[in-house]
Design goal:
By secondary structure, the protein is mainly alpha-helical. It contains 10 helices and 8 strands. It has a two-stranded antiparallel ribbon with strand order 1-8. It has a two-stranded antiparallel sheet with strand order 2-3. A two-stranded antiparallel ribbon has the order 4-5. A hairpin with a 4-residue loop joins strand 6 and strand 7. The chain is elongated, with a radius of gyration of 25 Å. The termini are far apart. About 25% of the residues are buried.
Length: about 290
C-alpha cells in the first residue's frame, strides 16, 4: 500500500513539473513583445524633416530634447540611441534585434531554442523554462537512480549490467544527467543576471547614461527587489508562467547601492541639454560617495 502511494505521489509531482516546464516553454515562444509606445516614435512630419535634414545626427539630438518620456541611456559611442530601421528613439534597455527585425524592450538576447527574442515581455517565462527543465531532469534522474545502482552492483565483480532493469531506464538517467548539466550552466548564469538585475547584453558591456558612463550596477536594487522586478511581489505567482513582472518595460528604477544621490536619480528625467552627446559621454562623472 505504501509503495502504491509513493508511486502516485512521484507521478503527480512529475506531471506537475512537466506541465510547468511545457507551459513556460509555450509562453516563452508565443508571448508577443510589448510594442514601443508612440511617444518614442517620430511623427510623420518629423520623419520628412529628418529625410530632408543635412545633418541627421543633429536633427535627432534636437528631436530627443522634446521627448515627453525620460531617455537617459546612451550608445557605447555616446550617441542618442535612435533606431534608423524602426524610426524611433530606443527606450532605456531596449535594443534592435536583426533577426526579429524589431526593437525589443529590455532585450536580453535572441534565443534559437524558442526562435524568439527574450526581453521584458517573456523573460520570466524563459527563466522558468530553464528552471523547470533542470528541475525536471534532476527529479527524473534521481527517481531512476536506484535502478541504475541496482544494475551496477548486480554482479559481485562490479561489472555493469542491465539485466535487472530495462535499458530505457538507464538511458533516461544519463540523458537527464546530460540535459541537466547543459541547461544547468545556463540557468546559473541567468540566476546571476536576475540577482544583479542585468541582461545578457548589459553583462557584456556596461551601459552609458547622460549623467554617468560605464555604470555596471545601474539597475541593481538589491537581490530582493531585483527578484521582484522579474517575478513580481507574489511568491506563489512568481513560480507560475503568468505575467507578473513590474513596470512597463520602458522605465526602470535605478540603483542607490553605488551612492547615487537624489539629484543624480532625478537627472534621468530631465530633457537633454544643448551639450552634445559626445561631450556628455566624455565628461567624467562626479565621484559618488556611499552613504
Amino acid at each position: 500500500m505504501l509503495t502504491c502511494v509513493l508511486i502516485v505521489v512521484l507521478l503527480l509531482i512529475g506531471h506537475i513539473l512537466i506541465f510547468l516546464q511545457y507551459s513556460s516553454f509555450i509562453k516563452a515562444i508565443h508571448t508577443k513583445h510589448s510594442p514601443i509606445p508612440k511617444q518614442f516614435h517620430l511623427t510623420q512630419e518629423q520623419l520628412r524633416e529628418l529625410d530632408d535634414a543635412e545633418d541627421e545626427k543633429e536633427y535627432i539630438r534636437e528631436a530627443a530634447k522634446k521627448l515627453p518620456v525620460p531617455v537617459s541611456m546612451l550608445s557605447q559611442s555616446g550617441n542618442i540611441r535612435y533606431c534608423s530601421r524602426c524610426r524611433l528613439f530606443k527606450p532605456d534597455r531596449c535594443h534592435h534585434c536583426s533577426l526579429c527585425n524589431r526593437c525589443v524592450l529590455k532585450m536580453d538576447h535572441h534565443c534559437p531554442w524558442i526562435n524568439n527574442c527574450v526581453g521584458y515581455s517573456n523573460y520570466k517565462f524563459f527563466f522558468l523554462f530553464l528552471f523547470y527543465t533542470v528541475t525536471l531532469c534532476l527529479y527524473t534522474g534521481l527517481s531512476s537512480l536506484s535502478d541504475v545502482i541496482r544494475a551496477w552492483t548486480h554482479h559481485s565483480n562490479g561489472s555493469f549490467s542491465v539485466s535487472w532493469v530495462r535499458f530505457n531506464v538507464v538511458f533516461l538517467f544519463f540523458m537527464c544527467l546530460i540535459f541537466a548539466s547543459g541547461a544547468g550552466f545556463l540557468l546559473i548564469f541567468h540566476i546571476y543576471l536576475v540577482l544583479k538585475n542585468k541582461t545578457t547584453l548589459e553583462s557584456g558591456r556596461s551601459p552609458n547614461f547622460t549623467f554617468r558612463r560605464n555604470w555596471a550596477s545601474a539597475y541593481d536594487l538589491g537581490w530582493r527587489r531585483n527578484l521582484q522586478q522579474i517575478f513580481g511581489t507574489s511568491l506563489f505567482i512568481g513560480f507560475l508562467p503568468i505575467a507578473s513582472s513590474l513596470g512597463d518595460g520602458c522605465e526602470y528604477p535605478m540603483s542607490r547601492m553605488a551612492g547615487a544621490s537624489e539629484e543624480t536619480q532625478a537627472q534621468r528625467h530631465q530633457p537633454l541639454t544643448d551639450e552634445s552627446e559626445e561631450e556628455i559621454y566624455n565628461r567624467e562623472s562626479t565621484p559618488l560617495t556611499i552613504p
